[in-house]
## 1
Amino acid sequence: QNMGDLDASVAETQKVLQAIISKPKLTEALLKKPPFRFLHDIVSEVKKQTGFPPLADADLDSNNCKDKESKIAYLTKVIGMVTEVTGPITVKPQKIVAGMEPENTNALLQGLAK
């Protein structure tokens, strides 16, 4: 993937999510290599504002997502809920946790806003 695609994807993520949430701050640097905690904060804030995705309270507590397995389990749930609304998104929880394929992670974040 060339960086132009990622730049465009990041800009789109900022546009659609900033219409819904004011925090966390959606900086380009964070969206280009999103750490898990940042993603968890975004998902939790979107749910607070919109009720979507329909996660359990335990999932909204980032203390429950400390190790790799629990992070992957959490992301798998989020991806499932988002793709039910958006249709398939090519995104793998293992890649997200490893900080790889950020353009796919951005596609997932855009799906949250739909």
Note: DSSP finds seven helices and no strands in the chain.
## 2
Amino acid sequence: LFRSPSVCSLSRARLTIRKSVFNNPEHSLMGLDQFSHVWILFIFHQNGHLSCKAKVQPPRLNGAKTGVFSTRSPHRPNPIGLTLAKLEKVEGGTIYLSGIDM
């Protein structure tokens, strides 16, 4: 279920870069603390992408149907998601975020 950032502004998350990705994960995050927000690309890996519908009924439309690509529905033919999160702090190879809507 989608959570608008305005509804979930108190939500928190932690994203840690693994050493299997970079030998020195903290090096990849150098300078990131100069920004207030970060864009995060992710995979809807627990969505069950066996099928999806071209039209969906988002809650904000009170039952009316609209095309899936005009919504933020996670049920789409491509499992890639994009979200904007507030950057709280960077410590070593870990970033701390708020306002997560995933």
Note: The chain has a mean pLDDT of 85.
